[in-house]
Amino acid sequence: MKEANTAIKESSADQPSLQVLTFLLDHEIYGTDISQIQEVLEYIKVTPVPRTPDFMLGVINLRGHVVPVVDLRRQFEMEVSEPTVDTCIVIVEIMVDDESTSMGLLADGVKEVVELEARSITPAPRIGSRIDTKFISGMCEHEDSLIIILNLSKIFSSDEISEVMDSVSSKAAKSIETDSDDSE
């Protein structure tokens, strides 16, 4: 999978636009390349997993697969809020150790898929050392709103993703053991 920055740069040469799924976090509009989106789910109960990073809410069962769900508000050090009727889980595909894996991102709500002209996407501004912009692929003005385009592969460090995936693997193994114990 290509880095989102690379995809944006290449799209300006090859294509006039980039399709982005937009969603809300703390009244701000964020987006990510539609090619990384698997599906959007209504908010469902997330099962907590002990001894996981603060940003990991837990796991959900998605058609027999255990999928970790992370709270971007926590990762971005925003105020945490209670789920509402608009809260949803965006299932994305990310690369972990050269392997594609699914992960859920908790969002305040999904807006729409928009088509952005590649030339209208600007790099994240350098605001100083207080704000980390490494996970931002770019920004774009769209219909009087600013969309912050996220680079999903840079939101979490490889150590954080590995820790989440290890927790999920152990939760899945325990779930399988419990299922086999119940069937005896």
TrEMBL record:
Pfam families: CheW. InterPro entries: CheW (IPR039315), CheW-like_dom_sf (IPR036061), CheW-lke_dom (IPR002545). Residues 17-161 form the CheW-like domain. It comes from Teredinibacter turnerae (strain ATCC 39867 / T7901). Gene3D superfamilies: CheA-289, Domain 4 (2.40.50.180), SH3 Domains (2.30.30.40). The lineage of its organism: Bacteria, Pseudomonadati, Pseudomonadota, Gammaproteobacteria, Cellvibrionales. One of its GO terms (biological process) is chemotaxis. One of its GO terms (cellular component) is cytosol. This is CheW domain protein.
